[in-house]
Amino acid sequence: MTLTLSEADIAAVLKYEQLIPAMERALADFSAGRVIQPVRNMLTIEEGKRFLGVMPAVAETGMGAKLVCFFPKNAGTEMPTHLGMIMLFEPETGRPLAFLDGRLITEMRTAAVSAAVTKHLAPDNSRVLTLLGSGVQAQAHLDALRHVCHFEEVRVWSRSPDHAQHFAALQGARAMDLEDAVRGADVIVTATNSLQPFLKGDWLKPGAHVNAIGSPRPTWRELDDTAMHKTLVVDSREAVLKEAGDVIFSKAPIFAEAGEVFAGSKVVSRSATTVFKSVGIAVEDIVTARLVYDAITANG
After folding, report:
1. Which domains does the chain have, with CATH numbers?
2. Cα torsion at 135, 136, 142, 148 (round to 10°)?
3. Does position 300 have pLDDT exceeding 70, yes or no?
């Protein structure tokens, strides 16, 4: 029987303790050529406001596709900016296994990938985390990154100061001005839909690590050229060169894919100032969906 799994079903079983290492394995397999997937096909419904993405992938543990609605126009409303559905199949037989709500999976797998990369690239004994953005991904990254680092201080900035203050009050963080929030931070997360760069590389302390996960369009940017020309790691070379304005416009050289770092074929010094540019790829969704499916079916 094909299961239909709601966000509540997924939330009951999907935990970062299992998801972070699963994302390491998935991206190592991707970079080693053990995953079949095209770059996401993004259909523009209304420029800057409504997009539909089609994301198929075949991995050893599962195959399927995600349909994802990226609707920046929903920001500030009760509707999330990211909504989706995942169809999961058994790769050996083609048997349909499940339809899964894609919103929470997208949220958590994005943060889990950043956490996995941070574990490998962030300075030893990282103590200060800065979140640039105060929405769903800021919260998810705060939760996920706490599994790999022990932060003594969390800073937050948002283009909406009221949102930053609210987030800070809920999370025990400090709402700060942009430059002050970045200077001296060990780990920085950019999680916005900015059209223009706002994070300046000159603000980054030597050895800082940036997880740049926002502005997922080929003409949108969060980081200036100076930041992008630090040691750059990406989830997929092919994908960022099509989808990431930060990479396209800066023409920054890509040092490695995350999967190469996880597999040990590319090594980054802990003293290097690093940027991880993430656009999110389909294998992350399929492997996460299979993790959820296995957990639910194991529990009967």
Report:
1. 3-106+282-298 (3.30.1780.10), 121-277 (3.40.50.720)
2. -140
3. no
